[in-house]
Amino acid sequence: MSESHAKKWQQSWQQTTNPNVETQTEPKPIIKEKTQKRWITPGEKVIYSVFSFVTIVALLFMVSFSSNTDTLNREVQQLERNVNQQQDINQNLSYQVKEFSNPDRILRIAKENGLKVQNSKVKQASSLVNN
Fold first, then answer.
1. Residue 130 predicted with pLDDT over 70
2. What's the CA angle centered on 111, arms 108 and 117, to 5 degrees?
3. pTM more than 0.85
4. CA dist., res. 17 & res. 21, Å (int)
5. Closest to 103 in 3D by CA, of 71, 128, 81, 66
6. Distances (CA, A) of 62 to 58, 65, 69
7. Cβ neighbours of residue 40 closer than 8 Å, sequence gap 6 or more
8. Given this model, what pLDDT does residue 131 score?
9. How far apart are CA 48 and CA 40, in angstroms?
10. What is the pLDDT of residue 76?
11. Cα angle vertex 71, ends 65, 76, to 5°?
12. Residue 46: C-alpha distances to residues 49, 50, 51, 56 (Å)
């Protein structure tokens, strides 16, 4: 017989033989409260906090770098547009210089203003510059 069966048998025998005697009650066993196992330990909390902080700082750096790069690219594109516009203006002005340096135009304007020019002595400015 096991110990618990023996105690139960003894209690039942005492009650049948001495019904007026109170039986001894067994003391209730002390139940130890189990501490809940933590899902995350304090050390892990520190590690996760540091990792999260580093990740956030890295993301902020990437966003800042991307923003600066985008701003720089926009400025470069604006400067390229300005350079292209200036090149177009310079080409138009060089074309106008060629038009205005035409000897026929110079002779026409000279005649309009009353000057007499001998055709044999008029030379193109470009041929003088090249020599």
1. no
2. 100
3. no
4. 9
5. 128
6. 6, 5, 10
7. 48
8. 46
9. 10
10. 98
11. 125
12. 5, 6, 9, 15
